[in-house]
Model the fold of this input.
Amino acid sequence: MNSEHIEKLVEVNDIKKHFQISKKGLFAGKAYVKAVDGVSFDIHKGEVLSLVGESGCGKSTTGRLLLKLLGATSGSVTFEGENITDLKERQMRPKRRHMQMIFQDPYQSLNPRMRVRDLVSEPLLVHEELDQNARYKRVEELLELVGLSKSGMGKFAHEFSGGQRQRIGIARAISVNPKLIVADEPVSALDVSVQSQVLNLLQDLQKEMGLTYLFISHNLSVVEHISDRIAVMYLGKIVEISTSSNLYTNPMHPYTKALFSAVPVPDPTIKHQRIILKGDIPSPVNPPSGCNFHTRCHECMDICKSDSPELKDIGNGHFVACHLHTTSSSQEVRIAYEDR
Ligand code: SF4
Done:
């Protein structure tokens, strides 16, 4: 995408979400889970931006903050140039039609007591003044668009397979012609054979309807073909953002390299060395000082334990938060590291 023609649909600026919890025992008192801890990124109009990282890194919370399904502790979200952070629910209502969500588990996200025609037409009921006939006519068109037969309109969600249920969830999300869809692990609950069908459907709909996606996934193999850009999250922060092709060929952050090293390569002639990360993800209640990845990083230096690296552009829209690449004297840091 030519940078001169990039139109930003969403701008997320230093957003944080800290959940208060109560600690019991010797150190009883209040504590905070820093689920999202200062995240900034843009989503360009018409692109697929994927947010990847291990479970619990704050991806889903970020998606919900963006849609204002959760209130932020601090920071801001701008949608189509308007700061929506402090809008009341009444003020958000007209915006909600443009910002829809597809959930991970289609079975849990669909009301089991509602028939498909009512599930899919529910957003139409809220956002458009259509009589019942017009609504159901639209549902027929939507079901056809997502590859389902209109004969299923009177059925309940449990009468469909997992892939079909996700298609119903997609039909519901696109029913009001949204501009942005946050898709939270939309294929991870599906069989592998069905995943690619749903991914293809999402791609086709994006082209046909000019949609913009924030695609959340823990699986790098899933996001490779659908993403224009990828943002990698670790422990509530973004550590790297780049175009999909660049990130797959030239990952810079040690965490991104470790994630990619775990992706199976179908060609046995390609030498592939797996990077095993030390230990578990630290607690977001008490994240490590400095670079919060330093306790697991095999390239950790002294500076990493005390100074938190900023997410900086290292050229061509490739952003990295790592002292090996982003300090003003990163060249000397790298040389010093390699000479150890
Ligand atoms: Fe590793 Fe240091 Fe870079 Fe963090 S800043 S990823 S600890 S090298």
